[in-house]
Amino acid sequence: VTTQVIRSIAELRKALASVRETMRTIGLVPTMGALHAGHAKLIETAQREADCVVTSIFVNPIQFNRNEDYDRYPRDLSNDVEFCTVRGVDLIFAPPADEMYPEPQRAFVDVEALSDHLCGEFRPGHFRGVATVVLKLLNIVQPSRAYFGEKDAQQLAVIRRMVKDLNIPVAIVEVPTVRETDGFALSSRNQQLNAEERRIAPALNQALRRAEKLISAGVRGAEEIKSSALAILQRYPEIRVEYLEIVDPESMQPVEAIAGPVRVMMAAWIGKTRLIDNVLCRQPVQAANS
Ligand code: AMP
To answer: Which pLDDT tens digit goes with each residue over 195-252?
Structure first.
């Protein structure tokens, strides 16, 4: 049997009503498709914790701005259906754009401050589009749990804050980043890289790990840490760094001095492909008293 693919909101609600009747819990894994092992990890986590797993596959137009890559974003529904079938996903919700947006959307969710920096600065309107579509999906599916990857840490922080501030009755579950053996974080966009671009891509994670190492060695100055990490990337003329920033993991505000847990966040272009990655650095070891 293949996983059931549902394209309409009404049909999905009907299918989920009978799931709820038998008191079974629902887990939602929102994705934009072109599924890979990172998504599989979200699905497996959901399957351990929920009776019925819904994977949504929707490339959300309102989170891309005009000069971005909405058209270029990889789409492969038949592969994704196979991917979900093999893994025993219960339902795929893959609505066409006009099912989610039958008219121009007039209501939006803005999560202030958390969306100001990092990707929010370079992709104006992006998190407004993300928060809005995630709220729509939560309202459509009404899951008890929803699963998100640490790879998109700012997105996760924005969603957590939306859920808290708007009292949405769902538990948000964070899933660690799945990486290739060379440290390169899995992403649907990775398939856009040519062989040469793929070869240098591990430098992104190496730069983050350099920052992590300095922080755990007790270095406190963000500027010093950032320039040391950037030095790794500057060896490659093909890599154009958009930002490399050290932020508070919850508020997503840049810090100047490390005084607690921080997340080192980066976005960089390799050729025509924009990639992001981040690492969490927990409380640095207290410098020994001399
Ligand atoms: P996307 O399809 O890229 O929008 O991602 C859908 C979900 O999968 C998001 O919650 C992402 O954070 C998560 N995700 C994407 N890549 C990875 C990865 N390499 N490891 C873990 N989760 C991921």
So the answer is: 999 999 999 999 999 999 999 999 999 999 999 999 999 999 999 999 999 999 999 9
Q: Catalytic: 39?
A: yes
CB 86 within 8 A of CB 123: no
Phi and psi at 164, nearest 5°, equal -70, -50
Ligand 1 atom with minimal separation from the 152 CA: 12
Closest CA to 165 of 272, 241, 250, 38: 250
Whether the full predicted model's pTM is greater than 0.85, yes or no, is: yes
Whether ligand 1 lies within 6 angstroms of the CB of 177 is answered as yes
The neighbouring-strand residues paired with 244 are 266
Nearest to 170 by CA among 289, 26, 272, 52: 26
Structure tokens at 115: 């969306």
| Number of Cβ atoms within 10 Å of the Cβ of 128 | 18
Query: Mean per-residue pLDDT for 58-64?
Result: 97
Give residue 148 CA to ligand 1 midpoint distance, Å: 7
Closest CA to 131 of 155, 103, 166, 98: 155
Q: For the CA atoms of the chain, what is the radius of gyration?
A: 20
